[in-house]
């Protein structure tokens, strides 16, 4: 079979104005970035605000193998399948980060015949949103250091600077650095840090903002440091809000592209789910709901990460509620969760699948705790056997959830028609979203609830530094914020090697901090990092561009 990039490059792509026209969007309501991608103007967003909202479909997954399980591919294929059954669906996705594109995954625009295009643009610089976020983040850092250099009127304690610089690339050498070396005109010497752009609070804020006014209000609350009396110093205090908003003016507008089958896609924002809240922008989701009868969106990694944050953070803050939740699985991931080595995952092993299905069962029950309608689908691979598929179907019947085989990778929308019909029926069933925890609980109580009810932990152990920070944050009045857990994506626990559905373990919280602008408290568990590193053989080695400008090796 052809590679993803070969399929994408050989596909027929039509002008984005024609895609927009299907949704009633005029050409003068688009801000074109070439012929095949565009931002939706503020005038367009204002005009559609009073449109009736469609049904919201959330796509999530079980804990993946290191290769990922095709959640984006299923999302794309499902949107194409809805078109096949005569329904108007708009897909709302996150933008890929350059870190994984050049690191492990090599791209995040779907796969096979269920891709968003132009995939090279989407996977690389796209419309520059991530660069704008990076610039805004680092402008705030520069203004902070400059304030200290120019007299430090706010009496900022240089030992308590919490704002970090960022870049959208995996670069472990920047995790812990020293700045200010040189003479006194080069600033004060201090330890500093970098996070990847998708873990920046600016990314979280852009994705949770309703409009420019709300964006600026959130930016004003960002805590950058503490003064010598322990009082929080904000981005507003150092004069960073206006200039950051100016850099983010265009990035706040959602981007429109298309699938291989020319169904509309809105791609906007891209926080990671293992170190951030893992959902695309509120603006993109609301826009898709106003433009289509169905909005299909996805939340990063497994349901223990992206879906939990979608429901407990994004839905809590916005009033959004999914009408259906689709949990994506693969036969190979279930066998992997039974401890089968990666090299043996292509061989039939029904017993291993049944053992590994404990992971799927946990995710289904976790989602059902929220009162939402749940379906399961598998992203079918060529080496999946009928016996394995039958075994998985039987497991879903035991769970009482509808099940469909998805072949959207190989067949595009046609391979997702069965799933589309099931999901459409689910959307018509009543549901009532119930959050996992109450706002009034303490920070520890919220963490403990997530650890017990989602991960299966018996208890939570807090490092001394985390205990100290929790106390400070509650004294500052942040105890009623929701919690954003930073945890490995490979396990329900904080140990990536603990596969299946571990129980009775201890979850370790090593660090706590507040993203006051985004409106949540971050709890870092295990060895999870906010600045990833490149693997021994990064995907970057395979990526090139020929003399005609054609990109190769991006998949």
Q: Can you walk through the features of this model?
A:
The chain is 35% helix and 19% strand. The protein has 19 helices and 25 strands. Helix 7 crosses helix 8, helix 9 packs antiparallel against helix 10 and helix 14 runs parallel beside helix 15 (386-399).
Keywords:
19 helices; alpha/beta; 555 residues
Distance from first to last alpha carbon = 13 Å
Number of helices: 19
Radius of gyration: 23 Å
List segments where confidence is low: pLDDT < 50 over at least 5 consecutive residues: none
Q: Give the assembly state of these chains.
A: single chain
Relative strand content: 15-25%
Class inferred from helices and paired strands: alpha/beta
Total number of strands: 25
Mean pLDDT: 95
Biggest sheet statistics: 12 strands, mixed
Tell me roughly what share of residues is in helical segments: 25-40%
Could you say which overall geometry the principal axes of the C-alpha atoms support? Answer: globular
How do the helices and strands line up, and which of them pair or pack?
Elements: H1 4-10, H2 16-22, E1 30-32, E2 38-40, H3 42-47, E3 55-61, H4 71-84, E4 89-93, H5 98-102, E5 110-111, E6 114-117, H6 119-123, H7 129-149, E7 156-161, E8 165-167, E9 177-179, E10 190-192, E11 194-196, H8 201-208, H9 212-220, E12 223-227, E13 232-234, H10 241-248, E14 255-259, E15 264-267, H11 282-291, E16 294-298, H12 303-318, E17 324-329, H13 331-336, H14 350-368, E18 374-379, H15 386-399, E19 403-406, H16 408-411, H17 417-427, H18 443-455, E20 459-462, H19 464-475, E21 483-486, E22 506-515, E23 520-525, E24 544-545, E25 551-552
Parallel strand pairs: 3-16, 3-17, 4-15, 4-16, 8-11, 17-18, 18-19, 20-22, 21-23
Antiparallel strand pairs: 1-2, 2-14, 5-6, 6-14, 7-12, 9-10, 12-13, 14-15, 22-23, 24-25
């Amino acid at each position: 079979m052809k590679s993803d990039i070969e399929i994408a490059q050989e596909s027929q792509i039509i002008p984005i104005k024609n895609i927009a026209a299907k949704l009633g969007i005029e050409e003068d309501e688009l801000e074109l970035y070439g012929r095949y991608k565009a931002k939706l103007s503020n005038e367009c967003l204002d005009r559609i605000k009073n449109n009736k909202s469609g049904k919201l479909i959330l796509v999530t997954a079980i804990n993946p193998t290191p290769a990922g399980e095709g959640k984006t591919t299923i999302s794309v294929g499902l949107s194409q399948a809805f078109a096949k059954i005569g329904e108007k669906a708009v897909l709302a996705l996150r933008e890929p980060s350059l870190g994984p594109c050049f690191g492990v995954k090599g791209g995040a625009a779907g796969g096979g015949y269920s891709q968003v295009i132009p995939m090279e643009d989407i996977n690389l610089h796209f419309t520059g949103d991530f660069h704008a976020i990076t610039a805004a983040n680092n402008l705030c850092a520069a203004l902070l250091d400059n304030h200290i250099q120019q007299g430090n009127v706010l009496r900022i304690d240089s030992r308590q600077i919490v704002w970090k610089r960022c870049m959208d690339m995996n670069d472990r050498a920047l995790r812990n650095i020293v700045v200010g070396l040189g003479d006194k005109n080069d600033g004060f010497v201090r330890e500093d840090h970098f996070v990847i752009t998708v873990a920046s609070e600016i990314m979280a804020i852009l994705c949770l903002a309703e409009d420019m006014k709300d964006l600026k209000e959130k930016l004003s609350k960002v805590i950058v440091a503490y003064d010598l009396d322990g009082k929080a110093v904000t981005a507003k205090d150092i004069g960073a809000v206006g200039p950051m908003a100016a850099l983010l003016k265009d990035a706040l507008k959602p981007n429109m592209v298309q699938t291989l089958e020319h169904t509309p896609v809105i791609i906007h924002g891209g926080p990671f789910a293992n170190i951030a809240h893992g959902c695309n922008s509120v603006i993109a989701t609301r826009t898709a709901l106003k433009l289509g009868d169905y909005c299909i969106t996805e939340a990063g990694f497994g349901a223990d990460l992206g879906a939990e944050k979608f429901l407990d953070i994004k839905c809590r803050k916005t009033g959004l509620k999914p009408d259906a939740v689709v949990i994506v699985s693969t036969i190979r991931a279930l066998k992997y969760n039974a401890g089968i080595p990666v090299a043996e995952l292509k061989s039939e092993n029904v017993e291993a699948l049944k053992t590994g299905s404990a992971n799927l069962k946990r995710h289904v029950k976790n989602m059902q705790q929220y009162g939402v309608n749940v379906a399961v689908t598998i992203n079918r691979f060529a080496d999946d056997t009928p016996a394995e598929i039958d075994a998985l179907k039987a497991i879903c019947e035991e769970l009482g959830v509808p099940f469909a085989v998805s072949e959207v990778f190989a067949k595009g929308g046609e391979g997702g028609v069965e799933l589309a019909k099931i999901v459409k029926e689910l959307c018509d069933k009543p549901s009532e979203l119930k959050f996992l925890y109450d706002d009034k609980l303490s920070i520890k109580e919220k963490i403990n609830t997530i650890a017990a009810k989602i991960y299966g932990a018996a208890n939570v152990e807090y490092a001394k530094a985390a205990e100290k920070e929790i106390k400070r944050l509650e004294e500052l009045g942040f105890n009623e914020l929701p919690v954003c857990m930073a945890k490995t994506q490979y396990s329900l626990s904080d140990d990536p090697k603990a596969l299946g559905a571990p129980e009775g373990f201890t979850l370790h919280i090593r660090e706590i901090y507040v993203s006051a602008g985004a409106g949540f408290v971050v709890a870092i568990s295990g060895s999870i990092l906010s600045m990833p590193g490149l693997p021994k053989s990064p995907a970057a080695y395979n990526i090139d561009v020929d003399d005609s400008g054609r990109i190769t090796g991006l998949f």
